[in-house]
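Hallway conversation turned thread

IA: we were arguing at lunch whether anyone had actually written out Glycosyltransferase involved in cell wall biosynthesis end to end. Turns out nobody had. So, for the record, here is the sequence (347 residues) and right after it the structure tokens. Reply here if something looks off.
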Amino acid sequence: MSKHITAIASYGRRAGSSRVRLYDWIDFNNLKASEEVYINASSNSFRKLLSNPRRVLAAEMSLREIANSHKNGNLIISRRATPFSNGALESKLLSSATRGVYDFDDSLSAVQQVGVQRLWSLSKTWKRAVATADIVIAGNDYLAEEAGKFNDEVVIIPSCVNPNEYRAKTSYESVFPRAVWIGSPSTESYLSLVAEPLLRLHSKIGLRLTVISSGDTALGGLEPMVDRIEWSPDNYKDELAKADIGIMPLVDNKWARGKCAYKLLQYGAAGLPMIGSPVGSNQTVLGRSRNLISNSADDWFDQLDDFFNQPDSYREALGGRARELVQNEYSFQAWQQTWMKAVGLEV
């Protein structure tokens, strides 16, 4: 059986979802892949698209050439192929393949677009791609249930990490209390949910917050306690272990319930204790690793305050359980056979 695959994504390798759900799997399995990345950017904003008309035209022509071919073999689409689609092109691409695979890790069916973007509905694209694919890969059970309404062949594969690539935390002594948050600019707004308890802890115990992101937006008043680190593929795996605890606040809505707890998995890969909101996959990851779950602002304050008053052995136990869970249940190694089988390749 061949180990070649055609991989189609809207974004390049710096974009979190495409990297985690597609490119990391290609690299981990040493696959020969024909990678079709729209304009090879981390964003397809209309400003960026309008400033690159030749690249947009070339991408549209290339996708149609692939769709019109009947020799595509194994083909996988991550989220969508083009921002100018209601799913017809994705459906044709998947139908043209010997095995058409559609992968997603967000609640795309819940996306409500406004303005000119309504002409190219992401939710409609998702529905047509799910219905057409030979098999759908969903990031968690919530997403799988949504996809299962339109396709009987759905497999759950979480967003995975490779713990061997992370610097593992070795010392759990907390001299200068520090939390860490990692994520994309679009998710930085979740930090405002815990700004008040974090600022109270900053005043009480000197807590600081490292934010690893390529964003630079305001953080709801958290700026006095924040140290920003520009995300790069070379630095984040070492930076996490420098903190005492990783945080993942979420609001409870349909979009957040589709989240795959990837931040928590990165913290766990580094052996970092973690705390988060009990929303979607967060509940599963935190519960199974017996780490900290917080439901309210007061809860965030009380649990973090207690966390820093506990002995080093307590923090080490949390971090150890987090890393063990990731190694056993959320690593590329643990899901390799399932992913390869889903895309129709051999291990």
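OS: looked through it. The chain has a mean pLDDT of 92.
IA: good, adding that to the notes. The two ends are 10 Å apart (CA to CA).
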